[in-house]
Design a protein that fits this description.
Largest sheet: 5 strands, antiparallel
Oligomer: single chain
Radius of gyration: 31 Å
Shape: elongated
Number of strands: 45
Mean pLDDT: 79
Distance between the termini: 81 Å
Helix content: under 10%
Structural class: mainly beta
Length: 667
């Protein structure tokens, strides 16, 4: 019913009345003027909507942003996961309401959950503050629905949008020791055990490179951000790249040096060293080795990538190898630094020599990028396993061309005070084209069909390969792990991916053994129109201008640093027994065909027989990658393997992973 608002006043020029009470509905008003003669006609009718005392609805309730503070990340999964992918804890965020209401300022937020998203809402948490995010909400059922409401003095406001979050039955023998961290598989050592602690180098999706110190017994961890390298390469382009992780080197006095840089760093080699032994809280300022290198050694030029410090104890030398330059001239380089009598390295970048260089006279292998893994025997020898190029650059023409694997080693000749380079059989290599100050063995140039200075481990003419790890066996002979990929036309030939093992038996490299006997699904996910797709031969897609994946990436494998008879690998665990080869190109929430799980395998019969020892992770969600396991040097068994775990779609801007560790199976 309409009503008249009548206010009797006894003076003129009164044109407003305050304090008129409003009802929940029917607030239509009109006004008349009254004098001693009588009242005037009614004014026009005005409708007034009451202002609510409680806030309006918060908006954009979601899982915490993939990359904090950024909106251009291409990893926009159509389903939601939680940051802690084993203990089922999610982190929510939202935007403030458009209006706090007449009841005053917002004082806190109410988080509610429901099993069906429409009814039975129960309180999860009152935040007690005005922060628009909340951490560590436990998901104790397979699927749960959340909403959030703002609170002020008048009460609880209108609820936000409803958010669906899926739980997991995933289990893991390990411990998460760092939120937000990742690494590539060609910068090493990624982790080192020293004095009862494990030191792990990483880069995160902020573009920050850093180090984590983990107590091996308690698993308590501390972290230090070494450098924000997000804009080193280009101030206008944020660098968030898994190639940028720090390599960790422990000096003889217990101080830690980290080597790092951006992917193809235009500045050169960067390093920082702790002020005190085993203390990651205080560091020296960054050193950048960045000469012009256009004079005495034109073959070793900027930029740099893949830091690998290796200590030759007998020589008191640090053998440091890294990739240098970009195609068409991108050799893998080496330098030696005398660290025996000086607190700082006496060698400089300009002293580096080209270590490995793809033969530039043979098509199509000329001017390629070698990829290198190495291991030091702790005294005077470093063994190298390397490819003659990137498997994505080679073998893509469908004409039988592919990447091969080679081995050689460097041994320090103490009497002559120099490094010597040998084939697997111990034959010293000599490069007839070496001149000037270069070592007579360098650069090493593998030749696919015509023999080579280094020893061929795998002939990739028909099936290309990539190096993953090398270790010195109990018989003091090298053992290697690598992946193989069938060659195919174009860039879509990465099918039939396998983990392979081979060892030097003193005379030859043994015939490689397929460890798991099953195809290994690539580790990357291509995001196409909001749908996560993963399968061999998926090719490279682009979203928002970013290349998201390398189809030759797998979850990865490594030897146990203390026991060459143990291998940690990421295997495809198929949930659908009818499909033992790949993921279907569908939404993995509705048709999951497999997960990528970290497992431990054990060798027997000189590598001819392999068997699975345990599942370190199980029942991971399809979008969760367990990736790039690494066994810390000198580990004590309490932390035998580290790896990263979480959504991963490629090496550039496309990861949201945490770092985990697990003990040895017999610890």
């Amino acid at each position: 019913m309409h009503c008249d608002a009548i206010a009797f006043v006894n003076s003129v020029n009164i044109n407003s009345v305050r304090g008129v009470s409003l009802s929940g509905s029917g607030n239509n008003f009109r006004v008349r003027a009254i004098n001693i003669i009588g009242s005037s006609y009614n004014s026009s009718t005005m409708s007034v909507t009451p202002t609510s005392g409680t806030p309006t609805a918060p908006t954009s309730l979601d899982i915490r942003s993939f990359t904090p503070g950024r909106t251009d990340s291409p990893l926009n999964l159509p389903y939601y996961t939680f940051t802690d992918t084993v203990s089922n804890k999610c982190h929510l965020e939202w935007k403030a309401p458009a209006s706090s209401g007449s009841g005053g300022a917002i004082t806190s937020y109410l988080i509610e959950s429901s099993v069906d998203g429409t009814s039975g809402w129960t309180t999860v948490r009152n935040t007690g503050n005005t922060n628009k995010e909340v951490y560590n909400i436990t998901i104790d059922i397979e699927e749960v629905y959340f909403r959030v409401s703002a609170i002020n003095a008048s009460g609880v406001g209108t609820p936000s949008n409803v958010l669906t979050v899926k739980g997991s039955t995933s289990t893991c023998e390990g411990t998460m020791v760092r939120q937000n961290g990742v690494w590539t598989f060609f910068t090493n050592p990624r982790a080192v055990c020293y004095g009862g602690n494990t030191y792990i180098g990483w880069v995160d999706n902020r573009g920050v490179v850093g180090i984590t110190k983990v107590n091996n017994t308690t698993k308590e961890s501390t972290h230090f951000d070494l450098d924000d390298i997000s804009n080193i390469a280009d101030p206008d382009r944020a660098e968030m790249n898994d190639h940028d992780n720090a390599a960790v080197f422990i000096k003889s006095d217990g101080r830690i040096t980290c080597y790092y840089g951006v992917h193809n760093d235009p500045g050169g080699i960067r390093s920082r060293t702790t002020i005190y032994p085993e203390d990651i809280t205080e560091w020296s300022t960054a050193i950048v080795y960045s000469p012009a290198n256009t004079g005495s050694n034109p073959n070793v030029n900027l930029p740099t990538c893949y830091s690998n410090p290796r200590l030759l104890e007998d020589a008191g030398m640090l053998l440091y190898h890294f990739r240098t330059g970009t195609p068409p001239k991108a050799p893998h380089a080496i330098l030696f630094a005398n660290i025996q009598n000086t607190p700082n390295f006496t060698a400089f970048y300009s002293d580096a020599l080209p270590l490995i260089e793809s033969e530039n006279t043979l098509h199509p292998w000329g001017n390629q990028r070698p990829y290198v893994q190495s291991v030091v025997n702790g005294k005077n020898r470093v063994d190298f396993l390397f490819t003659d190029g990137h498997p994505g650059d080679l073998g893509t023409k469908g004409d039988g061309n592919g990447t091969s694997l080679y081995h050689f080693y460097v041994e320090w000749d103490k009497a002559a005070n120099k490094a010597r380079y040998y084939t697997s059989a111990g034959v010293e290599m000599v490069n007839p084209s070496a001149t000037g100050a270069q070592s007579p063995s360098l650069p090493i140039r593998p030749k696919h069909h015509q023999g080579s200075d280094p020893t061929m481990v795998w002939n990739g003419v028909n099936v290309r390969s990539w190096a993953w790890d090398i270790v010195i066996g109990f018989d003091d002979k090298p053992c290697v792990l690598f992946t193989t990929y069938d060659n195919g036309a174009g860039s879509f030939g990465y099918t039939n991916q396998r983990y392979m093992f081979s060892r030097w038996d003193g005379t030859a490299w043994t015939t490689p053994v397929d460890i798991t006997g099953a195809n290994v699904v690539p580790s990357t996910q291509t995001i196409v129109r909001g749908v996560a797709v993963s399968s061999p031969g998926m090719g490279t897609k682009r979203v928002n201008g970013f290349t998201l994946d390398e189809p030759c990436y797998t979850g990865g494998c490594c030897f146990d640093a203390n026991n060459p008879n143990i291998v940690y690998l990421v295997n495809t665990v198929v949930q659908n027994s009818t499909n033992n080869s790949d993921f279907l190109s569908t939404d993995p929430t509705t048709d999951p065909t497999g997960t990528r799980e970290l497992q431990e395998w054990r060798i027997s019969n000189d590598g001819l027989t392999w068997s699975k020892v345990r599942d370190i992770t199980t029942n991971s969600l399809p979008n969760i990658i367990n990736g790039r396991p690494y066994s810390p040097k000198n580990h004590d068994g309490k932390i035998a393997v580290v790896w990263w775990r979480g959504p991963y779609a490629g090496w550039k801007r496309c990861f949201n992973t945490n770092i985990w560790c697990a003990p040895a199976s017999d610890s």
